[in-house]
Structures are given as structure tokens and as C-alpha cells.
């Protein structure tokens, strides 16, 4: 029995119920770097897992990616809080032996090195599962462990280019462009890792067996593009879809419009009844009565002419004017804000979507709150980010491992 199941069913009628977190009692050996792996293990830490983040004597690249706080990259800080940081030289036999001793006490092993790299360190699945047969071992790579691109590094913009993401991003008629949110595909893969870990832990609870889980950024990126891929596969012409700016491919109108004051207003009509309400809100009864726009299919077919008409009309009044009318009619819409708007928005504040934590090394920093709300097993950022190796002695002592051995 590993850390996952020890005491899992223990109850006490004499004591009040304890508000535990979902993954309390789960220990993670976190051999990750950059964004994909560290962000996934950070999420596991938010769910309550004891995440032991392992780095070599030379800190990983994310430490030095600007901007920095007190010399440490904010990417490293934001992806590695809620963890204990230890340093081991896995090329050294003694330190590798310590790693395997730690792994004996772990439930999950997560690594996102290039295929073959972790095996060279003597910590591939075969070696790790021999030490701990119940381990959930996650290997995350860019393109998969086989095939001509197996050993290539996975960097978010390069995946965007390869998987077709860039070809559907950008203004209509353009050749496509990179999505400026640098880590979108990275963090999609991180979330996929967390899903897999939770599912594998559930399977282990039922079967008593661990397993090897493989996850690829390319597969995660393709799953994220399901609707546009379906559009391509269903196309009678076989033509791939192109970029549409802010517009949706399957519903019209569903995009951002520039208002009189230069601000942008996103409007999303996904049902014919919403279309009628939009026509009332913008005082265009003539559009509501046009037969060609009566259904979404007709609006998609007449997209160019309809959007040009709406763009000209919405440009005659400021954003606040239209927002009030759209709200009154119940038409889905949103103002295009920036991060400063978001940080101080009353909706964000009321729901604690962004929180502050105190750190010993970086001062008080703002971080995103856990994306889940559990009534009985709350998730929370309980441990601030730290420095490489600061918990090495603590972890080795706790697990009864000789630091000098």
C-alpha cells in the first residue's frame, strides 16, 4: 500500500469531520521542467498532493526567463508553488539511489523530458515500477515517443505552427499567425496530465495496480481544435478552414465589434432566438424580418454582408450604450478588457479568482486561485514558491534517507 491509500478509509465517530483536500496523502515525484510538467504538478499540489520537485545541480531554464523577481523568472515561480524543492544530481549513483528511495514512498511520477532522456538517468518506467509497482508514471512529450519527430523539443509556438493552430488564427484572408498567449497549448497539456493522473489513481484504487501514462502536446493540441477539425473533415470540398479574426466559424454574429469610442464589444449569438433579441437591442427590426437571416445557417452564408452592416451600425454609439441595451435584452456579450481591468474587477474580487500569497524569497505575489470549488475537500494554494533545493534535507530526513549516503 502506497501513500495514496494509507488511512484513506479511516474514520472516527468521536471527532468532527476533517476538511481534507482531494489529494491529501498523495505524494508526487516531480521531475519536470519548463511549463508543461511543472504546471501540471502545481495543479496536483493545489489539490492537496505533496509534490517533491526535483532539480539537478544546475537550475532549469525557467529560472532565467524574464521577467524576474529577485533573480528568479516569474514562470518558474508561478509554476512551482505548492511544492517542496529538492536538488539531486541524478547522474551521480548515490543521488540516483536517493531518488529511488524517495520514489518508494510516492504515488505519482511525472516527467516531461524528451523521449529517452529519463531512461538515460536510470529513472525510466521499467526501473521506477520495479521499485514501486503501484506508481502512476506519467511521461509527457511533444510529439510522442515514436516517429520521426519523437526526439524534438516541444515549444508552444512550434506546436502551434505544426498542429495547424496558426493557420486558423489571425485576420480573415491572412496567412495565419501565432496566438500571443505563449503557453496556451503548454497549459492545455498540463491540464490533460492532471486528468490522466486522477483517472489513473481511481483505476489503481479499483485494481491495485499502477501504470504508465503517455501524454503528447500534439494530441492535446488536436483535441483542443475539435470543432475546426470537424469543420475540415466534414467539408465537401476538402478545403482546410482559414483564419476568421475574432469570429466563430459556425455561428453568426459571434465576434468583436468596434464601437464609437474605439472600444471593442464581443457579441455571441448562438441561437435564433438570441438573434431576434440582438435585433431589438440594436434597434434593427429590419434585420429580424429578413428571411435570409432568419436561421443561423442563413446568417453564416450571408456572413460578409451581415457583419459589414452590423459593424457600421455599432460604430455609431459608444460601448456602454450598446452594453446596457444588450444586457436588457439578455444578449450574450462582453467588453474586451485588459489584465488590469481583470485584476480589479468586482466579479473577480467577489469570487477570489486571484489571490495573494506571502513568500520568503519573492515578497507578496498575486497568483490565480485554484480553478475548482469543492465544498467538502477545498483546494487552496497553501505553500508559497521557493528556491531550488531548499527542502532537500527536510524531505530526506522525513523519509528516513541518509543525506550523506
Task: Describe the model.
This protein has 405 residues and is α/β, with parallel strands linked by helices. The protein folds into two domains: 27-224 and 355-398, 3-Layer(aba) Sandwich (Rossmann fold); 254-340, formyl-coa transferase, domain 3 (2-Layer Sandwich), CATH 3.30.1540. The chain is 37% helix and 15% strand. The chain is built from 17 helices and 13 strands. It has helices spanning 36-46, 74-79, 93-104, 117-120, 125-131, 156-162, 184-207, 217-224, 226-233, 272-281, 285-288, 296-301, 303-314, 319-329, 339-343, 346-351, 392-398; strands at 27-31, 50-55, 68-69, 72-73, 83-87, 108-111, 136-141, 211-216, 254-258, 264-268, 333-335, 354-359, 363-368. The strands form four sheets. It has a six-stranded parallel sheet, sandwiched between helices. Helix 1 packs across helix 7 and helix 7 (184-207) packs across helix 8. The radius of gyration is 25 Å and the shape is elongated. The two termini are 26 Å apart. Residues 4-13 have low confidence and may be disordered.
